[in-house]
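thread: overnight batch results

M.L. [08:02]
morning all. the overnight job finished for the chain we discussed friday. pasting input first so we're all looking at the same thing
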Amino acid sequence: MTLSRKNKTLLVDKEAASALELLKDGLLHPLTGLMGEKESQKVLKTGLINGKTFPFPFILAPSGKKNEETIQSLKKNEEIDILCEGEVFATLQVDETFQIDPSERTKHIYGTDDLTHPGVMATIKRLGNWALSGKYQLVNGSKNNNQKKITLAKKTIQAKHTTSLFMAANPLHRAHERLIRQTLETTDLLVIFLLKPYDNSTLNYEIRKEALEYFINNFLPKNSTIVVPLENSYIFAGYNEIIIDSIVAKNYGCDRLTVGRNHAGLGMFYDCNSNKSIIDKVIGIDIEIQIASEYVYCNRCTTLVSKNTCPHGQHHQISYHADSILELLEIGLLPPAVLIRKEISAFLLSKIFPNRFKNLEKLYYDILPVAGLLEEHTEKDFYLELMKLYQTTSLT
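M.L. [08:03]
and the structure it wrote out:
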């Protein structure tokens, strides 16, 4: 397919580009290409591609008046350039153009088209009324070496079982740590797919990755866990998230997927006189889906416990809500060690509030016990020592 300056252009964002890269890398198999109108209708009716689960049509329908005018003007076999952030990202040979209903599409993805739903609103803004299909070639796609990384990790330890976890770790807290350890009990290699969101976050991907790798390198068996970045596009949202997770994990070489019992997509429904979940809809994807316990801190047990085994009830339990823990960090508070490991809290605060203190050395020596030697200290050192004071009990 030859790149030509005379080609018409279509503008897409990074979220759409990442989904096209996943498809081209073979990570959405049984899906092999962009869907046309007839295939889209078939998937909506059956939820299957070649007898294997795929939850909704995979189409390219970018928003914008110019995009819609361009799509409507295209002819079969015409070549078009797909631009992302001002650069040619891919070229596509047009097979078909067709109209879609953005509201119906969001309903298939999220189970609702209610615009008060944050995912629905964000997706509606990105969807146009016209879609196109055809074979495409990446021009400036990012190189994905993660499949080789996982294959090498499996070979290094001769792994018989490889399990996947999908998490944002925003921030990494004690319940995440317990979930990771519990998963490692029954597998040889754990692949953590660390989500890279497209919205602005206090903790960007690199900060979250460094915190997660600190925990892996210091508190887990060597060569047991690897971190793989995953662009968290809208196709992973909604009640079908576990299905897409299963497909991607399988195509990356994992034979198991662990999800938390409180996962948003794990809702139960009643069908044919039995209780079922979204997991029962996974057909033809050869991966074992395991449901992990939900962990809480119980002030009677005085430790992290599974809700299944703690007898003391919700009024004695502290749940681990990442958004609320992040709120403490965002206003500059050091979360209790029962919520986040102190080394990770110290690291995160030093990243969120760099150069926070006017005179760190004076503050350090004024309020913390020291050995008498004058040494340079980082903000991370300060937070770690401050946590020790919080944990002193003789005056409390």
